[in-house]
Amino acid sequence: MPLIGITAAQDDSAGRISLSEGYFRAVAKAGGTPVVLPPLPPAANLAALVKNLDGLILSGGGDVDPVYFGEEPLSGTGAINPERDDFEIRLARWALLNDLPVLGICRGMQVINIAAGGDICQDIAQWTGKPLKHSQEAPRWYPTHEISIISGSRLATILQTERLRVNSFHHQVIRRVAPGWRAVAWSKDGVLEAIEGPGLFTVGVQWHPETMWERYPVFLNLFRALVNASSR
Ligand code: MN
User: Fold this and answer.
1) Which residues surround ligand 1, an ion (CB under 5 A)?
2) Catalytic residue among 72, 83, 106, 121
3) What is the pTM of this model?
4) Catalytic status, residue 145
5) Residue 196 designated active-site
6) How many other CB atoms are there within 10 angstroms of residue 194's CB atom?
7) 55 dihedral zone (left: phi>0; alpha: psi -120 to 50; beta)
């Protein structure tokens, strides 16, 4: 069973890390062995860590420090966790360099895009166009907006559809897709909802499949695809 690392959230004020159960339950259900990764200090040997993993999930969470894409913080940027940013950006780069299968979820999609040289819009209020409600107040498992997926993309194959409804808990959106990556799904307001990169398996989704798969099994396909790619 492939070992799938899942990055944890870090709560500075409470002095603890945390991870929603949906992530590791999904990996286990998909046939992988989940292992939770705390933010390791800058001196940690990431090469050794990556060598021991078969796959990686960059999980959801707070905002990435805009310094990582060359911007000062705008007023719309929320809470930032420097240790988690540092760890995940370096981990994502190592993973991409070593062709480790990666699934980025919500913040994780933004982290991997930034790590690969793209950027994000710090707040959807500053985004051009008229955004839909992407910070839903419905239950976490409930899909609130539609996405369209590019025909023939890896994601369309995984989800076996080009249109479906997803949940939404983000106030930041990808702006410039990283070189070598491509946009593969959008909501109806033109907000980017998924990206794919080069290599064995590199997929980022803006929604949260880990809170949906128990009610909508199609979302488990994402974790299955990651586990399958990690088994090679
Ligand atoms: Mn959304």
Assistant:
1) 134, 168
2) 106
3) 0.97
4) no
5) no
6) 27
7) beta
Would you call 106 a catalytic residue per the annotation? Answer: yes
* Active-site residue identified among 88, 193, 196, 210: 210
Query: What is the whole-number distance in angstroms between the Cα of residue 116 and the centre of ligand 1?
Result: 21
Q: How confident is the model at residue 68 (pLDDT cuts 50, 70, 90)?
A: very high
The candidate with the shortest Cα–Cα distance to 115, out of 92, 97, 81, is 92
Q: What is the gyration radius of the CA atoms in the chain, in angstroms?
A: 16
Residue 133 CB coordination number (10 Å): 12
Do 91 and 56 meet the contact criterion of CB atoms below 8 Å apart?
yes
Q: Is the pLDDT of residue 128 over 80?
A: no
Confidence of residue 12 (pLDDT cuts 50, 70, 90): confident
Tell me which residue of 75, 113, 82 sits closest to 202, measured CA to CA. 113
Token pair belonging to 159: 């989800």
